From TrEMBL:
Keywords: Cell inner membrane, Cell membrane, Membrane, Signal, Transport. One of its GO terms (cellular component) is endomembrane system. The keyword Iron-sulfur does not apply. SUPFAM superfamilies: Periplasmic binding protein-like II. This is ABC transporter substrate-binding protein.
Amino acid sequence: MSRVRGKGRAHRAAWVALMAGVALAGCGGEADAPSSKATGLAKGGVEKPVLKLGFIKLTDMAPLAIAREKGFFAEEGLNVTLEPQANWKVLLDGVIGGQLDGAHMLAGQPIAATLGLGTRAEMIAPLSLDLNGNAITLSNRVWSMIEPNLPKGADGKPAHPIPASVLQPVVGKFRQEGRPFKMGMVFPVSTHNYELRYWLAAGGLNPGYYLPGDVGGTTGADVQLSVTPPPQMPATLEAGTIEGYSVGEPWNQAAVKKKIGVPVVTDDQIWHDNPEKVFGLRRDFAAKYPGTTAALLRAIIKAQAWLDADRGRNRAEAVRILARPNYVGADEDVIAASMTGKFTFGPGDTRDAKGFNVFFDRFAGYPFYSDAIWTMTQMRRWGQIPADHDDGWYTAQAKAVYRPDLYLSAAKALVERKVIPASALPQTDGFKPVDTGFIDHVPYDGRKPNAYIQSLRIGLKNGQKVTASGVTGG
């Protein structure tokens, strides 16, 4: 595992000495703003030292919380306020409107905004915040219907991963009773939506298509999906409005603790080491404030390295920080249930999950073009992108939004300071090798998105489009 080396502490000490009366962000309270003059002298180009960043109350916002609480933002001459947002739309609107300088974002948000799916804005994602971190939870009622027939291991516990095909008789029963089978996810362009859809489709269930301008995406659906903000997922499940949901932690573990639901599959089991959140900015912000952008990235990378250092040595402290009401605000035991190398699927069923949250290792911070392209293949698969495009279009859109050049510039500066090792930087042209780590084992090649779309059993194919009466063409 990678380590944040001691030289970073020396930088912090020098910064404190220079700024004299400026309190470090890691000291807990609001720090006074460092002057732009002092910042420029100390850091050579931080144009905007006082910043406000948005986040949603999920454990994968950890790099931002750690960058503030451990003083990494302050080391880089930044005074950062972190502000929780009510939902993903409010967060995106805040960044677009300039009320927020940047944010913890769904990987699909800067892509969708740049494509004009919903609100149009020129966005970039210069850093990936983490890998994995989501799960799918079912209500106790549905669990009681599927659990008796699940294959069991030698310990008597259900064998994992649990495929969505086990839901087919349940969905059929609901249909016979004249009721739709409903599940929740957090946002139409969220990884949670695409992972849930992928899991359902791999199990032979159609999660529905999006009509142009439609945010519901229920045309032709066997399972109807709707949007619920992450912290409200457990209450929505308990109320019976939905029969399950796809969400990030700690809101699956919250269902376990409240004894209202059972997690059945993690996103790492759906797509091994999938990209989850990104750090999102407006393109014009990065162009206007390149020094500030670089400083932000350096601070966040240091926080990511701290989170994964020494095989998770710092995770217990991270749990205590995230449990504070100004961050995630969930009980420490609920956050720790998935943040410290374990994942609890139910009472008495806690399993090793060392890769459930990855922030720095396995090149987690590098924004791969192929990850952006996978997101767009799912947008096309389910009709959010309504028409066909050639492979070159997908690559061009990915390169417009994902900015590994900015990531590498910041990371290389940290390598030069001996803060992170050179081995933490991938040797890549922005594309991962062909990926077979999906629950249905369908290979994904980011250089050939159209062939990939064609290979998926359920979903739009070349020449097809969605109308109110269903899928036509192709």
